[in-house]
Specification:
single chain; about 5% strand; transmembrane helix; mainly alpha; two-stranded antiparallel ribbon; globular; two-stranded antiparallel sheet; MetI-like fold; about 300 residues; MetI-like; transport
Length: about 300
């Protein structure tokens, strides 16, 4: 007895190849990846290679670069400001993660609700995300002005009001301004991830008598694990590369108390016209960001996770 294969099925089988197990395998076309690959090579890999080459030269930005070997790297090892800037970058980044992560999770889970008032409040809350870092920094510098800003009107709370004149308070201001602007972005990520959690999990938990708090800790947080790692990596990279906020708010001061690595790179390259030393600092910053991101991925076990839709 013979059976005929429908035309639709016949067409479908011709567009796929069959592996040894007999299952249909879709062969993707790598031509779709060519534009993105070229873009990445031209605007990421090539500039990084050029910066690596410049780190072994002495160049003032005008005359021809002069090869100096590893002199720039030796100078960084004995540069106290460089070591301090790396430490400050890590401190500000860690504080940013500690502050933004719980706020983003709570606000994201709350904003995932379907009530009308939540949609309106969420839209208003996301306004800082639409502003540039420069505009946000200028805004907060005016608000925190010790003579005419909020501190001058509330001396009982801020003392002399010069929050940017001491290291601890200046670091606190940088962390606060960064959280004010970028927490909405991570909130948006958690909002989307929360809405993707199957409602059947909450329904089953409610039948078992679990309340809202217990559902949050036993269902929502575990389901947001992958999103949390992704968000934290973005915070780490963003924190280590913060520049314009420091440039406008503190300019690395008082003294060098808030001179983070990105700002120190700017000072060496564009103020001291030492592009070789600035390039070395840039590579160190890339290396530190990569190491921290890999540590987060390895500690969290994110590298061992697999998507249920892998291969599609």
């Amino acid at each position: 007895m013979t059976t005929t294969i429908p035309r639709v099925a016949r067409r479908r089988t011709t567009s796929r190849s069959t592996g040894r197990s007999g299952a249909a395998v879709i062969r993707p076309s790598f031509a779709w990846a060519v534009p993105a690959t070229l873009f990445f090579v031209l605007f990421a890999v090539l500039p990084l290679v050029l910066v690596a080459v410049l780190s072994f030269t002495s160049w003032d930005g005008i005359s021809s670069p002069e090869f100096v070997g590893v002199d720039n790297w030796k100078a960084l090892i004995h540069d106290h400001t460089m070591i301090q800037s790396l430490w400050l970058s890590v401190v500000i980044t860690v504080l940013g993660v500690v502050v933004q992560t719980p706020l983003s999770i709570l606000l994201g889970v709350w904003a995932a609700g379907k009530q009308r008032n939540r949609a309106v409040l969420s839209a208003v809350y996301f306004v800082p995300l639409l502003l540039s870092a420069t505009a946000v920094s200028v805004l907060w510098r005016a608000l925190l002005d010790p003579n005419f800003g909020v501190p001058a009107q509330a001396k009982w709370l801020f003392g002399d009001g010069n929050l940017l004149g001491m290291q601890k308070s200046a670091i606190g201001v940088l962390v606060f301004v960064g959280a004010w602007q970028y927490t909405p972005f991570h909130t948006l990520i958690y909002q989307g991830a929360t809405r993707a959690i199957p409602q059947v999990l909450y329904q089953a938990a409610a039948i078992d008598g679990a309340g809202t708090v217990r559902q949050f800790f036993h269902i929502t947080l575990p389901q947001l694990r992958n999103t949390m790692i992704t968000s934290m990596i973005l915070m780490v990279v963003g924190g280590l590369t913060t520049f314009d906020t420091v440039l406008i708010l503190t300019q690395g001061g008082p003294g060098t108390d808030t001179t983070i690595s990105a700002y120190y790179m700017y000072q060496r390259a564009f103020k001291s016209f030492d592009f070789g030393g600035g390039s070395a600092i840039a590579l160190v910053l890339v290396l530190v960001a990569t190491i921290i991101s890999l540590i987060v991925v390895r500690v969290s076990g994110y590298d061992k996770m697999r998507s249920t839709s892998e291969g599609l």
